[in-house]
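Hi R.,

Here are the chain sequences for the assembly we discussed:
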Amino acid sequence: MTINEIQDEIIDEFSFFDDWMDKYEFIIDLGKKLPLIDASAKSDDKLIKGCQSRVWLDAKANGGKVQFTADSDAVITKGIISLLIRVMNDQPAKEIAEQELYFIDKIGLKEHLSPTRSNGLLSMVKQMKMYALKLA
Amino acid sequence: MVPPLGGQGVNIKKIRADFPILSTEMNGKPLIFLDRGASSQKPNQVIEAMDEYYKTTHANVHRGVYNLSQRATDQFEAARKTMQRFINAKHDHEVIFTRGTTEGINLVANSFGRKYLKEGDEVLISAMEHHSNIVPWQMACEVAGANLKVIPINDLGELNMTAFAEMVNEKTKIIAVMHVSNSLGTINPIKEITAFARKRGIPVLVDGAQATPHIKIDVQELDADFYVFSAHKMYGPTGMGLLYGKEELLNAMPPYHGGGEMIETCSFEKTTYNVLPFKFEAGTPDIAGAIGMAAAVDYIEEIGHEAIAQHEYDLLTYGTEKLKAIDSLQIIGKANNKASVISFLIDGAHPYDVGAILDKLGIAVRTGHHCTQPLMDLLNIPGTVRASFGVYNTREDVDVLVAGVARAARMLT
Ligand SMILES: Cc1ncc(COP(=O)(O)O)c(C=O)c1O
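And here is the predicted structure of the full complex:
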């Protein structure tokens, strides 16, 4: 699936939730399931320091595509990371660099990507795109 | 034990009606504002005083020959008098208007530092300080080649006074400590510190940012050499604050910023400086801010510090008991003498997650390191969730918080 197809799929899945509570339950669940980065691989060069929560991001080029793994010490942050990875993982570098991520706004989680939250997510998205841009 | 139903001495209904923002919503829920520690909300009395000033009295101060400028100057200087009374300073020229606590500390670190800090000297701060009482001293130490020393804390989150006494020596040039901790709530024994320092001739700067909304401050009784705070944490406007300094010290210190207002005569060869307080107030001041801050003082004094402290103490004890009943919850900061700040953690849940869920319930709390990163590192925690109460909070607010925290704990663990 393309980045936009996956984004639309997620928006569709989230349309079944009536309230934020169910949404958060779902995201927390995703967060708990996200494969962790091995503790030994949580080196400082992979660390994105947010003021609130910390995020680790690892990227590997595979052909023209990029594979991401990531982790966070906060579970809601981690759940959102899991969605971002679902959208961007194993996609062509050019697509990752260029596609707009509209699903976050559409599923009502925009506040988690605002600079005032300072949870590392915004920087993580920037780094994912920058990594892809270098490859593209 | 929970004392009898709170609010003795404060008319909570009237007080809540004074704060228009308290009847708004957040995320579709009635706003429960528990973040006075970061910034308090503002009563109509403050908003209107500033509004009125802009509508009827505004002109630049200390410069116009015309009546309007005179009236603006009178109000501005009347605000200084109000602030002098608020902290019981000996002279009104010991009251320097600043942009806030941060600017006050930078002013002293810079000006005092340039004059008195030499290579090998020591500046003594504490382990619980806010970044704004750490970084300016680090900068001053770097310039002078001086060293920053840190008073440790005990397990309850209180200053280790034995260590403090041992750390003071002939190299110590200034001691800078907070009056009330924004992260732990601890009220520090300032008089004990100043008494110890006085005998050795060492000046003490007190960061009063969290103290002024809660405790009646008497700088002469405290014997503080410098006392700094921000208006916005005590029901006043943002961008406004105060530096109190003892006359002799302020006179001996060089100016911080150069510009208009702070000069006596200015020529390209040599400038002579104005007297206190103007020497430290370069440029057009925040006139409306000063008037707003004075209005906040009038507001606090009308309710009474005693009544406010009692009301907040009730919320602190009530909230602490209720929160402690949540199994997985740990209170961070258990000082015996504490202001109305409750920091806590839920086992297995990150503060960010707890805060994000509370936000959806309309509850505004602070999460994170509260600008005291070294303290959080010392405690080996990523941060805390912090509820801090103001005069307008109620036991019902606490009940909503406790229910919200319990819900967050269920969702996250
Ligand atoms: C103890 C303490 N010191 C200093 C500050 C900084 O105050 P301001 O940002 O108003 O300068 C704060 C506020 O966050 C504080 O709580």
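Chain A has a mean pLDDT of 89. The pocket of pyridoxal-5'-phosphate is lined by residues B 100-102, 130, 132-133, 178, 182, 207, 209-210, 230, 371 (CB under 6 Å).

Let me know if anything looks off.

Best,
T.
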